[in-house]
Amino acid sequence: MKKVNVAIMGFGTVGTGVYKVLEKEKKNIEEKEGISLNIAKVYSRHFHYNIPDILKVYSVDDISEDPDIDIVIETIGGIEPTKDLVLQCLNSGKTVVTANKKMIAMYWPELEEAAKKTGAGLYFEASVGAGIPILRTIDDSLQANTISSVEAIINGTTNYILTKMYLEGRDYDDVLREAQELGYAEADPSADVDGYDAMYKLAILASKAFHTRIPIDRIYMEGISGIKKKDIQFASDFGYVIKLLAIARKNGKKIELRVHPAMISKQHPLANVLDSYNAILLNGNAIGDIMVYGRGAGDFPTASAVLSDVVYAAQKTKHKYASFKNNMGELSEELEFNTNWQNPFYIRLDLLERPGVLSKVTKIMGDHNISLNLVMQKGLKKEAATIVFLTYPSNEKDVQAAIQELKLSEVVKKVSAVIRIIED
Amino acid sequence: MKKVNVAIMGFGTVGTGVYKVLEKEKKNIEEKEGISLNIAKVYSRHFHYNIPDILKVYSVDDISEDPDIDIVIETIGGIEPTKDLVLQCLNSGKTVVTANKKMIAMYWPELEEAAKKTGAGLYFEASVGAGIPILRTIDDSLQANTISSVEAIINGTTNYILTKMYLEGRDYDDVLREAQELGYAEADPSADVDGYDAMYKLAILASKAFHTRIPIDRIYMEGISGIKKKDIQFASDFGYVIKLLAIARKNGKKIELRVHPAMISKQHPLANVLDSYNAILLNGNAIGDIMVYGRGAGDFPTASAVLSDVVYAAQKTKHKYASFKNNMGELSEELEFNTNWQNPFYIRLDLLERPGVLSKVTKIMGDHNISLNLVMQKGLKKEAATIVFLTYPSNEKDVQAAIQELKLSEVVKKVSAVIRIIED
Questions:
Q1: Which pLDDT does position B328 carry in this prediction?
Q2: How confident is the model at residue B382 (pLDDT cuts 50, 70, 90)?
Q3: B2-127 placed in CATH 3.40.50.620
Q4: What is the model's pLDDT at position B322?
Q5: Is A285 on the interface with B (CB under 8 A)?
Q6: Would you name the residues of B annotated as active-site residues?
Q7: Which of A254, B21, B154, B199 has the fewest other C-beta atoms within 10 Å?
């Protein structure tokens, strides 16, 4: 049986998860795959989980310079010093398996170039959706498809918060606090709730799906901290739920990339993705819609994907590289980044209670080519106060221009919510 | 660039679908995969879709004896003469890619033995869920998991019928007739509505998931033709939808295998799988729940999976074989096929309108260890007439024994429905 020596670099939650899962499944992997995975070294500064002393190393040199190590699992996270340590291993010809979304989203071309030079592999299934095998699916199951769209729930924390707000009718701040207490959200929740985490993952996903390097600075990003209980309730009345969606679309040269809260129909395949679950919905020209759903975080799901990469890499005689036309991060001149998306909008306004305000507001909408599908005033004695609009599909720029004008209008107290509606 | 010569055997809907998708995606596959797929020969008795004459062959010998052909795509379907033609190709060392669920479910060991002898590959992703990449996911993404359960909607026709009955409040016969007119159901619908199609697919799925050869005769099968509009309505009132589920569970030596209609919660990940869509939900010990969703039928989705297998096979330097311990179809002595499943039940009875009947009926239930969670009489003036029970988790054998006794009871006019409830 082929024996493969593996080193783990970083021994926090994910690193120990990998260690534990491999201990449990080692024999099964040998039986099913004909490969014996042997954890030869573990690099960390501190060891909070007990492993044999002989495995412990305190310098990455002990790994990169060890000719017996075949594959290095990086579970340190972050960019500094992780990226340099990964480069050190790739330069020594070690195949690297990582769950590090930020590093891959930002430095994939540089890392891949290093890997190519020594013939090492670079694998990162766990970087998007933890255990969910979405990158492998694109690579190895959709080869005969041109993928035109990606719609994904790829941040577990925000999906947990939005699910609780929806099912329990609670406020954002209240649920966030609970999520922090339970350890589902960080003390500084910005990386999740402002959309950074989803943005990194979308950059990786879209690059794979469109076979074109997508830099993160081309992705529009808007978080969920402005979502009110009231809007979730209105959405539900209209047959929608609100989710933080990561969306990428490609049509010929035109690409659109965005992370923002969106209303989707309760019958949409993503609507039943609850709590901290993730799901990625793709559309390919041959396969049609396909969705992969699972736990988007957690030590064991992440370990599942990491070890899947390890087994997969160990069975390769030659590693494949993405080899995008614009691999080194320069944008191909052929791509057009479209930010003037088209979709219906949900708009909630607080208006002065005065005759004629509705006509003033709807005139502004009309002046900006926005057609109204539904206008709703709720619980009012006179005209106005709070009013909700659902628009027909409208251009982003038209809507933003209308919003600017609405904000300046003397009859508008506040533009309380502007949420995009993503249709099936 | 590596050139791979491919032959298509059988040129009906799926065969022509493969041809069309490859024509469209050939260049993309070359760019992304570095492989040039060349359709060298097409075997059929009749050619309803126009292709160059030079490609047409009328004998499989022209394919099996052609040393330039690398991969044969089988899209004839059925067992006779297909299985012999596939064996002929495998014996000549041709890798075979097939969408033929019945052939694989029944003769996988024999076909794999033939493939092994010549070093040919045998691939059949399209045999389960058409384009949905579930077999590749098990093979290449869940290597570090012991899979304990499979719950799947893998028959599009029955899911279409049940969806229409649910959403439009229509009768089974009515919807079936419409499905037949639209071409979604066959003139003889038995293969779909009685569960055979799902049974073949479950045999393949469970074999892969449990790494153990599952013969079809060990799968319990019950179709949807007995499902009434009334039961779908009751289910909905209780928060359930009815789906035809294919279920496989393994716990140590114990295996259970069943295809039957089941009530699942409206929040269950499979509940929003509508129309002819399919989805497979797996549970692995590391990854937790994972679901893959997509079109379970159709020429292009099937072609997507077939061509994915072709590219995948072409990139392999050495083909892998399942190599189950009980590969040749003999059951390992270690397996115990459990048919005494445990789950809650929905039971609807028509009773005589007479005092004391409820007590007689509930006594029979109690005598068979069945605890009642909910008893509902609807729209009745006196005691009884129609009554619905939801039980706590009960053993299959106890319930079947109780049903036998109920049928013989003088107060029971009819046991109108017995539907298992599958909890999340």
A1: 47
A2: low
A3: no
A4: 84
A5: yes
A6: 201
A7: A254
Residues contacting B133, CB < 8 A, separation 6+: A137, A140, A141, A142, A290, B125, B292, B305, B308
Q: In chain B, what are the domain boundaries?
A: 2-127, 134-296, 342-421
- How many residue pairs from chains A and B have C-beta atoms closer than 8 A? 182
Q: Does B311 touch chain A (CB under 8 A)?
A: yes
The pLDDT value recorded for residue B380 is 56
A308 near A125, Cβ under 8 Å? Answer: yes
Half-sphere exposure of B30 (CA within 13 A, CB side): 13
Q: Which residues of B347-380 are buried (b: 16+ CB within 10 A; e: fewer)?
A: bbbebeeeeebbebbeebbeebebebeeeeeeee
A343-421: what CATH class?
Answer: alpha beta
Provide the chain B residues 159-198 that lie in CB contact (below 8 A) with chain A: none
Which residues from chain A sit within 8 angstroms of residue B284, using beta carbons? 304
Q: Does A21 touch chain B (CB under 8 A)?
A: yes
> Rounded to an integer, what distance in angstroms lies between the CA atom of residue A214 and that of residue A372?
35
Which residue type, as a one-letter code, is found at position B264? I
CB contact under 8 Å between B293 and A293, yes or no, is yes
A353 pLDDT above the threshold of 60: yes
Average pLDDT over residues B44-50: 93
B314 Cβ under 8 Å from any chain A Cβ: no
A131 at B interface, C-beta within 8 A: yes
Distance from CA of B303 to the nearest CA of A (A): 7
Does A110 score more than 60 pLDDT?
yes
DSSP per position, A221-262: E--STT--HHHHHHHHHTTEEEEEEEEEEEETTEEEEEEEEE
pLDDT for A238 = 96
Which residue type occupies A219? I
Residue A269's nearest CA partner among A260, A257, A261, A279 is: A279
Put simply, the answer to whether B311 touches A144 (Cβ < 8 Å) is yes
- The chain A residue lying nearest B278, using CA atoms, is A290
Fold of A134-296: Dihydrodipicolinate Reductase; domain 2 (3.30.360)
CB-nearest to B286 from A211, A277, A301 is A301
Fold designation for B342-421: Alpha-Beta Plaits (3.30.70)
**Model confidence at B331: pLDDT above 90:** no
Confidence bin at B398 (pLDDT 50/70/90):
very high
- Residues in B closer than 8 angstroms to A290, CB to CB, are 131-133, 292-295
Q: Which residues of A touch B145 (CB under 8 A)?
A: 25, 304
- Out of A90-104, A348-362, A409-423, B4-18, pick the least confident: A348-362
Quick: pLDDT tens for A270-315. 999 999 999 999 999 999 999 999 999 999 999 999 999 999 999 9
B295 — contact with chain A (CB < 8 Å)?
A: yes
